[in-house]
Amino acid sequence: MWRYVLKRLLWFIPTLLAVTVIGFMLLANAPGDPVNNLVMSSGSGGSLKTAEDIEVQKTFWRHKLGLDLPVFYFSIGKLSEPDTLYKITDQEQLQRIKANVKIHGGYKNYIPKFNWYGIHNQYHRWLFGGTNTQGIIRGDFGLSISKKEPVMMILKDKLIWSLFFSILSIILAYIISIPIGIKLAQQPESRVSKVTQTLLFLLYSMPSFFVGVLLLMLFANPDVISMFPPSGIKPIEGYDNNASLLSKFSASLPYIILPLICYTYSSLAFISRLTATSIGQQLQQDYIKTATAKGLSQKRILWKHALKNSALPLITVFTSVFPTIIGGSVIIESIFTIPGMGLETVKAIISQDYPVVIAVITLSSVLTIFSYVLADIVYAWIDPRIRPSNEMQNKF
Amino acid sequence: MKSHIYLFAILISLCGISCKKTQNNTLVVHLLSEPDDMHPTNGASAVRAEINLYTNLSLLRVNYKTGELLPCLVKALPVVSSDALSYSYEIKDNITWDDQSPITANDVAFTTKASKCLYTNNPGLKPYWDNIKDVVVDPANNKKFTVVMKRPYILNTWFWTDFPIIQEGFYDKQQTLAKYSCAQLSDSIFLKLKNDIKQWSDEFNNPKYSTNPLFMSGAGPYKITKWDKGVSITLEKKQNHWSANCQENWYCQANPDKIIFKLNNNNASAMLELKNGLIDVSTMIDYASFTELNKDEVFKKHYTLQLGDTYNYTYVAMNMKPDGKTHKKLFTDVAVRKAMAMLTPYEQINKTLYENHNKRVIGPINPNKIDFNTDLIAVQYNVEKAKELLKQAGWADTDNDQVLDKMIDGEKVKFELNIIFISGSKVWEDLAKQLAESMAKANIYAMLNPLDYNGFFGAVTSHQFDMSIGAWQSSAPPEDFSQLWHSASWANNGLNFTGFGTSQSDALIDSINTCMNEPKRIALSKRFQKMVYDEQPYIFMFTQTRRVIVNKRWDNLEVYTEYPGVLLNTLKLKE
User: Fold this and answer.
1) Which of A127, A255, B194, B501 has its CA 20 to 30 A from that of A271?
2) CB distance from A328 to chain B under 8 Å?
3) What's the complex ipTM?
């Protein structure tokens, strides 16, 4: 089994590299110029006579951020084009040059040319380090273009809150939805079951922005019930100095209940229905009848045998949650003012903060890969039939 | 059943916790977004500027009541040389940093050098410092100094209001920058040879100075004591601050013991926070929520709601110099641009989108500024007159397809256009829809094209648009028209999106920028406004109103046109 896991892990390294390359290329070709945004962020300031100084600034920052390098190890262009076109940062100037080359290039316009740039490129710098950066293999995701702070410093706190809500909500969803699913599977035709199924379906269909605002208007509104604070994740003056983890949690408890409901309700509804369907199928199997005939209690049959055999789809859902932890939830974070990854990612995309966006993509890819491996391991652990079949495949 | 009772009890106890309001002398202020950072030089957001009002001091400040300059760290406004290139100041006596060391001219020189140094992470702000040639400290008196400028410029004194003076003894203990001139620090070739400057800048740019309150030092009466990222920023009043003895000026006052800026970027929950009494001051809530709260009599018992003016304005820009290929020459004729202004349903827009709170702007200057040209008359909504103007300009529906057309450069061009705006703003989307509907009445077909910020900014600065919706922020200082209206700013892909500008208008802008005689400058400014008004490159829309909500437990409320509208340090807790 471990050989199988190792093989899967090794396969994921090129996958991860491919994802980062694609992400990097997409961002590098996105419209707009991040350095222009950075330098012109105050509306270019002062008199027009400073235009030359702005150009000096742009050159300096392009170099500092490594944006004056070619994007990748190589590029494929036309024979008629010079191989230093990447050095032209002004898009209008670039278009003019390309148009000129097209006019005067003749037959060379139709012959492709392979340009090799070596290791002095943006991707290599990001991966292995270079001027002003250590590279992600040393844990340095670089400097945020908009905030001019190390990327990991920006993401660290946001990641904690996103992890907190995602993990807590999925645990809650499983704790609540599995018993509900089992109950539904036991008596699928009962009136209670039908009403519950309808309610679950309704819950699943409701968008989070609607539920979020509804919860606020109902439970944080002095005109109705003012039971919870309307925004934030902790008391306004923060935690007491030297507060223990438990006291921090209890201080934050009123703040996290409404967002937690928002994070949980949809997966709760989905997992309940999934569990009900999956266990319902298992209850039709012969081994359940045998177990019943042997006199096993209903509880033991359901929880030990039926649930274990219907666990595969539940595991798939569980592992698919990991990548979403990094993405966060923009809508819920926005409604409840949660300092999470979702809003930070959107802000980074809008401000073309490449290092932050690519860090999010990379972390997301790592977690996706991790979740696949985890799913494979748990599948093999729960259902030994999966493991031998792979091992058999390896043998052939 | 028992478990349900327990659950209910827990929820009730949570309610007790959640409804805990800040009492005592702590002011809680609504914040829409966090500052980009709180580094002494490396940030540019408006929120940061607001916080700096209380934690830092500048050489000069704005007098919020009159809109004039006010000496702050200096004894008086500068003595200006006859060539308007030298500005002599003297720092006040007995003013100190937190460590009780005196504030001197060396701190001003250090602030200038740190801001101008190429290695400092403030690229967007460096152009503001460009005009400073040197800061010369009087060798006989370290309280006296002269700022030498490269060119005469109307903002040579005003620009100091935006930048706090920072402590050399805190940020440059080794006095590294003191060894070099301003010119050397801006020279990239020179800097490559100087390792000590690189070391200083690496330390100075360290994010700890941007985010960690322990590494922040300012001369203001408040100090940042806590920055809970994504939650709140806490300012506490300094004990024994020198300003305690000079309460006559607003920047010296420190009435609340604590000011907490609480982040909330959602209008629904911000409104609920106000209703719950969890926020004391908000100037940022949307129009609809403000109107709803204004109708709530219970709420009004506890809060004062007031509308205030701002220097901002919204506009619809028209591309006067399109390439004629990707974007047709629809707005090259002034008659067409005037027709567009007449096709705009101002009253309807103000009523439906801004709850009738906004005021019209007429030209490139906000009506709240002293140099506003009062002779200009606002263009009114008039579809029939607009149709007439379009007809005069040669636009007619020759093929009866309900869309105007015209022969331009030998080609039949239909009057079809794209309105671009930054996506995500419901107000701007509705504004664009209303414009399009109104244009349809004159057989003009407009499509809406929301773009993300980069797409929008890229399109307008590269002149790849027909019509765009936007807003400009302004402030009390005299207006430098070059950014938005100089033809060089169009050629350089700057903020002159429309292509407005002739040699005459450029010359006038240059004259205004160097005119140090205030009445003369105002006269020139009015002439320029008339020039823009006659050309109508924009449909000038509205100046936005500030929605001020303050808890009645606070007294001494005054609402100003200048950002942020309310000076938090001057609010007093009621007895």
Assistant:
1) A255
2) no
3) 0.79
